[in-house]
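Hi all, long-time lurker, first post. I run a small reading group and we've been trying to get comfortable going from sequence to structure in the token notation. Rather than ask abstract questions, I figured I'd post a concrete chain and ask someone more experienced to write out its structure so we can walk through it together at our next meeting. Sequence below, copied exactly:
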Amino acid sequence: MSGRTAAPSLRAWSRAGVVLVAVLATDQLVKALVTEGLLRGEQRDLLGPIKLVNTRNTGVAFGQLQDGGIIVSLVIALALGALLVYFVRHASTPLIWLPTGMLLGGALGNIVDRVREGAVIDYLKLPHWPAFNVADAAITVGVVILLVVVERGERARDRA
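-- Answer (accepted) --
Happy to help. Here is the structure in token form:
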């Protein structure tokens, strides 16, 4: 790898790492505050129709694949592996570090819960929507940003 490609790649890894740490730290801090302030199953009005809850999720984001056990673990491992392979191959793509850091930070935040609690701690409840957390939100927004970044990259390559 030449010096020209190594520097952008290193910057991309560093930036993704900063985003990962920020998402993971924020997620775990809020989860700690919720579990200290609310009994499991308790809920409180937060803002308008938004409720603060203390619940557990054995599935993936937004309650999908509840009680999936090993299937959930395999889905998460495959998705993270694919993301890392893609990032390694495309680290020089502008802004690819942002969704990568968001996705990894969100996934790690929920993995920490699974190891420590056996389930993910969820705490935000919107009307007609399953409870979720900062990690879930980072994963969801990260997927959208990843799709936009990949699409922009493909369009730029097609014009070149």
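A couple of things your group might point at:
The mean pLDDT is 88.
Residues 3-159 form one domain.
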